[in-house]
Fold this sequence. Notes:
The structure holds 2 protein chains of 2 kinds.
Chain A: E1 3-8, H1 9-19, E2 24-27, H2 35-46, E3 50-53, H3 57-69, E4 74-78, H4 80-96, E5 100-106, H5 122-126, E6 137-139, H6 144-161, E7 164-170, H7 171-175, E8 177-182, E9 206-207, H8 216-230, E10 237-240, E11 247-250, H9 253-268, E12 273-278, E13 280-282, H10 286-295, E14 298-303, H11 309-317, E15 323-327, H12 336-349
Parallel strand pairs in A: 2-3, 2-4, 4-5, 5-7, 6-7, 11-12, 11-14, 14-15
Antiparallel strand pairs in A: 1-8, 6-13, 10-12
Chain B: H1 30-43, E1 50-54, E2 69-72, H2 80-88, E3 93-99, H3 100-106, H4 108-116, E4 122-127, H5 157-160, H6 166-171, E5 176-183, H7 187-205, E6 210-216, H8 220-223, H9 227-241, E7 245-249
Parallel strand pairs in B: 1-2, 1-3, 3-4, 4-6, 5-6
Antiparallel strand pairs in B: 5-7
Amino acid sequence: MARRVMIKGNEAIAMGAIEAGCRYYFGYPITPQTDIPEYLSAAMPKVGGVFLQAESEVAAINMLLGAAATGVRAMTSSSSPGISLKQEGISYLAGSQIPGVIVNMSRSGPGLGGIHPSQGDYFQSTRGGGHGDYRTLVLAPSTAQENYDLTMLAFDLADKYRNPVMVLGDALIGQIKEPVELKTYRKKLKEKPWALTGAKGRHGHILKSLFLADGELTDHNWMLAKKYKSMEKEVRFETYRAEDAQLLLVAFGSVGRILRTSVDILRDKGKAVGLLRPITLFPFPNKAVRQAADKAKALMVMEMSTGQMVEDVRLAAECACPVDFYGRPPGSIPTPDELAKEAMKIWRKRGLK
Amino acid sequence: MSAKPKMKKVFDRPKSLKDVPYHYCPGCHHGVIHRLVAEQIDNFGLKENTLAAASVGCSVLMYDYFDVDVVESPHGRAPAVPTGLKRAKPDSFVFTYQGDGDLAAIGTAEIVHAANRGENITVVFVNNAVFGMTGGQMAPTTLLGQVTTTSPYGRSAVTDGLPIRVSEMLSTLEGTAYAARVAVDNIKNLKKAKAALKRAFTYQTKGWGFSFVEFLSSCPTNWKMSAEEANARVGKEMADYFPLGVYKDVRAN
């Protein structure tokens, strides 16, 4: 029987990583994710794993690169400014096709910003973030349970696609304390024939992202592009009271969570409002959004930023219906009532009945 | 017809080097240094158990020459990458091969902290006092007065500071177990360089901690000298400012 515990969202990430067989963690303190390195500094030695506090975020992501190059499951975590520093390493992971899990319990920016929850790292997460034409798979949990479950999934996807996978939460998702069911990870890990294990009875393996010969880099980029395209089958999203919705709200992570209550409030008033919550931000649930745009009278995107995911929703909706937006810059967390009121403004603006 | 004369083979390519020509410029010391490192990999029987980190610079292409497992590191991050390699595969022999533009400039944080943690890895540091791959710009190791493409009036202590002596600096750290500066400009120095590498390999294989070997190297192309002139500069100008010798050997005696 699965064990049910009361833990913080950040602890759920750490526990999910250990359950999924991650034994190598490299990190650096930064609020609001520091519970992750703190937890793992105590837990890793007990399971024969390695916890290493790096001298910088830059060093931490490169330690992950080194460890993961040998085929083991490795993770680093940080929060927004620290994730900016990791971008170089993430680009190299993508270019060299080395899997790794990067957790961003994002805070607010730009710059040092603050430690409030924010969704301002959506662009950075879904557009590659570092240099070059690459993508990272991005998973956006909205509960401590999802932190646990999606961290395990992140390791599977990283290995499956030999690609960095980002878990994008925020201060709210990391700091919230709630019940989590500790499921057992049962998958058997596959061999990684590409890994650096010592050239026993074979020539040396090379993991690299430098391609200088004629046409080599072009081929490499096309191969990566094909791989990113093949990730579309990993799309995950959740809908809530969406079937007959005239106004469909679209939000991820913590806002997606808050909006469930807003939807209930509006349904109690007889308004046909529903919710679509993307769980994978890359690949983005384009088809689901397009189908929703055909069915609903209007879409409305809500984010704790001045508008980032709304661009993807508009692209996916292909003008099949109007797409409105409400954004809340960092500083305060919107309440379900506030968001219900914002939704009602659009309900009236679009003349819905 | 006379029988084939029986000849004893006295010199051969190390097994851990591939049978391909180097891309390095004539007179560059990378080729000799590659060979010395490969000889020790063979001597210690480590070819099948070596994991290396290539760094950004001319020597990034080391994986075209060394027939061992190699991962490419971002610029300057080479000491962090093998930290991961070694922590994940503690029984492997792990080394980095880095230039001075990489190690002494953008990678100073990584090298200092890898040394300070006493990572049981070996660092081969090739110091030619210039950024080679990008075409000869000033490095932190460029000598005073040296003209480069970004110090066209010569390196000035006032605006650019003084050249960093990395072996001396790392020797002050408790975590550094072995540090030596060597050169391959003549046979006498080359023999000392071999001995230093052997010592560094011994440190790692015995689990004695962080070992560091700095090679003073020539760069005829970017120094705008002939191979002979550049070789001579290593032993004179460079070795005057960067004295050769063993700076730390905690297990001596």
